[in-house]
Amino acid sequence: MKIIIDQDKCVGGGQCVMAAPEVFDQRDSDGVVELLDATPPADQQEAVRDAVLFCPAAAIRLEER
């Protein structure tokens, strides 16, 4: 799994951070998503998939490997 984010689409809703806090964070200045781990370990992948589904701006996508 590889995570790709589009910071221009991000609306700062924070749903990704709540779903997968070890993989996503938000910038303090504007709340835009920051990626902490572009290739998360297996135990985080279900949470990452949830984050993709919960993102209100569809700013996160996955490439399955």
- Strand composition percent: 15-25%
The separation of the N and C termini measures: 5 Å
CATH architecture title: 2-Layer Sandwich
Order of strands across the biggest sheet?
1-4
For the secondary structure, the number of strands is 4
Helix content percent band: 10-25%
List the domain count as a whole number: 1
Q: What are the salient characteristics of this protein?
A:
2 helices, Alpha-Beta Plaits, single chain, globular, two-stranded antiparallel sheet, 65 residues, 22% strand, 4 strands, 23% helix, alpha+beta
Can you describe what's shown?
- With 65 residues, this protein is α+β, with helices and mostly antiparallel strands.
- The chain has a single domain, classed as Alpha-Beta Plaits.
- The protein is built from two helices and four strands; from the N terminus they run βαββαβ.
- The chain has helices at residues 15-19, 45-54; strands at residues 2-5, 24-26, 33-35, 60-63.
- The strands form two sheets. It has a two-stranded antiparallel sheet.
- Strand 2 (24-26) and strand 3 form a beta hairpin.
- The longest helix has 10 residues, at 45-54.
- It is globular.
- The protein starts with a strand and ends with a strand.
- The mean pLDDT is 96.
Write the layout of secondary structure elements.
Elements: E1 2-5, H1 15-19, E2 24-26, E3 33-35, H2 45-54, E4 60-63
What's the short version?
The protein is α+β, with helices and mostly antiparallel strands. The chain is 23% helix and 22% strand. It has a single domain (2-63), classed as Alpha-Beta Plaits, CATH 3.30.70.20.
